[in-house]
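Consider a concrete sample entry:
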Amino acid sequence: MKYLGLAYFTPEKFAAMAPEDVKELVSQCPALDEKMRATGKVLISASLGDVESWRTLRPRSGKTHVTDGPYTESKEVVGGLFIIEADTRDEALRIASMHPAATLGQEGGWGIELIPLDFYLAR
């Protein structure tokens, strides 16, 4: 089974942190990311670009309209994603718990959402 992990953060909380605290927090991420990838179960792992560069496409009157920013209005923003292939949900949870957003960054409002996927590959 494949699982999508969405790593969230709260921009306002992150912005309220002292720059040196942000730097210290972010410096811990590569080692945790590598530990998660070392399981051999992570198919994709990516950080998402700055929210200011996001675009949303919506259908309107038979045409596609493009607007700035994320589609949803929320306090939290998806900052990264990963896909895990695991034999059980418990295994997926164990691997996802290694991600920095599941172990660090409480002060930045970090968190993970783990979602089972019905996965189809385009050929």
